[in-house]
Amino acid sequence: MSKTRDQLVGRYLKDLMRATAGLSRPQRRQLRDEVLTHLNETIPADATPTQVAAALEEFGSVEAVADQFDQRAPAARRKRRAILIVAWTVVAILALMLAIVVMPSVFALLP
Hints:
The protein has five helices and no strands. The protein is mainly α and 111 residues long. Pfam families: HAAS (PF22564).
């Protein structure tokens, strides 16, 4: 294997792992192994950088591969994001309510 081939495939896999950060570690490992096996079978060891780039482009963008592997995406990402927004909104409202209740007691203790 050429150093350039390994670098380009390695960068692709690193980007793929970032794009699938929401998956469990075993799922990500499985995806990485499957993609690496496919790329090793597809891209010759003595491939030029142009050939490697063309093979990676033909395989698909990192986002497309991640979405294809994660059947829940992108709808699940939107759902998780909505849940986080609601959770943080509830926390903010509770903090505000607590401040409204506690602040008069604090001011009553001041001389």
